Amino acid sequence: MSDGRISEVPTKAHVPFGGPDISIALAFIVVLALVFVLGGIIGSVLRRKYLAGILLILLGFPGVALLAEGGIRVSRWLLVPSFNDETFQIFAVGGSTMQGAPYPPRFSPPAFLSSVFDGWIGARPIEIRNIARHGWSVCSESVLLERAVAGRDPGIPGVLMVYAGHNEGRVFPGSSGPSGLLDEIENVSAAVREWRLVFPPALDPINQFSRSETCLRRVIKTALGAGLVPLLSTAPSNHSGMEPTVPLDIDPGSARMVLAAGRALEDEGRLEEASAAYLKNSSDDGLGALLAFRAAGCLHRAGLVREAAELYDRAIDIDLRTRFGRASAAQNDLIRRLANEYRVPLVDTDRRFRAASPDGIPGNELFSDGHHPSLRGYRLMADSYAQAVTRVFRQPPIRAFDASEDPCQTLVCSLEVQASAHVAAANWRIAASVRHPDPREALAAASQHLQRAIELVPNDPAPWLGMAVLDAAQRGGMLWDESDIERLSQWNFGFSGHPCVSAGRQEGMLVRMRELEVAPGILKQIKMLWESKAEDCPETGGDS
Question: Whole-model pTM?
Answer without folding.
Answer: 0.84
